Amino acid sequence: MSKPLPQGLYRQFAIERVIHGVAAATAVPLEAERLGASRVLLTSTKSLARKTDVVERIAKALGARYAGLHDDIPAHTPREAVIAGAKAARDAKADLIVAVGGGSTIDATKAILMALWHDITTTEGIEPFANRGRADATPQPKTLERIRMVAVPTTLSAAEFTYFAGVTDAARGIKQSLSDPLCIPRTVLLDPEITLHTPMRLFLGTGIRAVDHATERLCSLIKHPFSDATAVEALRLLQRGLPAVQKSPEDLQARLDCQLGAWLSISGIQAGVPVGASHGIGHVLGAHAGVPHGETSCVMLPATLAWNKSVNYEEQVRTAEAFGRPGVEAADCVRDLVAGLGLPTRLRDVGVRHEDFALIAEKSMHDHAVKTNPRPIEKPADVQEILELAW
After folding, report:
1. What is the pLDDT of residues 202-223, one digit of tens each?
2. HSE-up of 160 (CA within 13 Å, CB side)?
3. Do 137 and 230 reside in the same domain of the chain?
4. pLDDT, tens digit, 9 for 90 and up, residues 9-19
């Protein structure tokens, strides 16, 4: 009897184009025109909008299409910022939103879209849409003729390439996911020059987040050739590009390599290949302890690799090869890259308290990514073992 053929499913997300190497102030008005938008709301952060000219240049380039700015989006995308952003969009009568910023800004804008589609006006109104399974992420509004977004990322989080948003319920100290296939941007604009304004630690840290996207998918026991291929190329670009940017901050080619690497790092999601505990525990560290997204990966990915090694040794060997370091432990490849970039490598370095491990472990058990870890995590004590490795 012949061996059963491997089965798989690849889904093309509702993203129409990725434009790279073009100035955002040039590309945004052209995309607004292409999409037929006449009232464009920009979303961003106070630091980017008020301490740089990035947002101002885009607003001026939009001319009469510019409908306003909502720049009150803090880290970790609290529910309150989503509700405020939706109100700003309604007040502006926006027909397109352009998110200019990092993962929190982009996630907030996705959630703002959902608030607009479902007439959500309070933080409590978000709850019925939180943490629905990926299979339930089907369009719900009355019509598909609805407001969408364009993303201009300034970090390497790759949030712009997914259809779900991480939103923090500050009252409970937990991060929840909102999802809809049309939350994903219609267009992503990768402008390396715009990242010159991103603080170096943030740029490099989110670069390790991209390394985490690629590594956890390459080390997954759920395999797909598309995911493996994009993850390998992502690691090649990132392990070359991140040190180059650190050495020469004005190197736009190195910055573009990192942006392309971040894009490829998360592409495996379209093939249904999941991430694992580094992401899952990281979600809790962000909501519970305020650790930046990228830095959760800096401290958790090596520990998670070490804990998982007994079940995915062959995948970790391939990961080391993708780093250009065959024969080296995958955990050491990541840890050495992180340390070489001057980023934190231990939980104690990012302000996490050892006495909080039990609570962090308990909260982590509810995260989807913990449930898809290659080595099954069956109880909070398992999470605590990984935390100890990262301590």
Report:
1. 999 999 999 999 999 999 999 9
2. 31
3. no
4. 888 899 999 99
d(C-alpha 158, C-alpha 15), whole Å: 13
Q: Which residues of 211-228 are buried (b: 16+ CB within 10 A; e: fewer)?
A: bbbbbbbbbbeeebeebb
Task: Supply the DSSP string of 327-389, one letter for each residue.
Answer: TS-HHHHHHHHHHHTT---SGGGGT--GGGHHHHHHHHTT-HHHHT-SS---SHHHHHHHHHH
Q: How confident is the model at residue 6 (pLDDT cuts 50, 70, 90)?
A: confident
pLDDT at residue 290 in the model: 83
According to the 3-state scheme, what is the secondary structure of 299-334? Answer: HHHHHHHHHHCCCCHHHHHHHHHHCCCCCCCHHHHH
- CATH number, domain of 379, equals 1.20.1090.10
Query: What is residue 266's three-state secondary structure?
Result: coil
The domain boundary residue, chosen from 168, 193, 218: 193
Query: Does one domain contain both 79 and 133?
Result: yes
pLDDT band at 176 (very low <50, low <70, confident <90, very high): confident
Number of domains in the chain: 2
Which spans in the chain are helix H? 24-34, 46-51, 54-62, 79-92, 103-117, 200-218, 225-247, 252-265, 277-289, 293-308, 313-322, 330-340, 357-364, 368-371, 380-390
Q: Which residue has the tokens 């990926």?
A: 134
Percent of residues, the chain, with pLDDT higher than 90: 82
Can you tell me the distance from the alpha carbon of 281 to that of 369, in angstroms, rounded to the nearest whole number? Answer: 8
Domain extent, residue 40, equals: 17-193
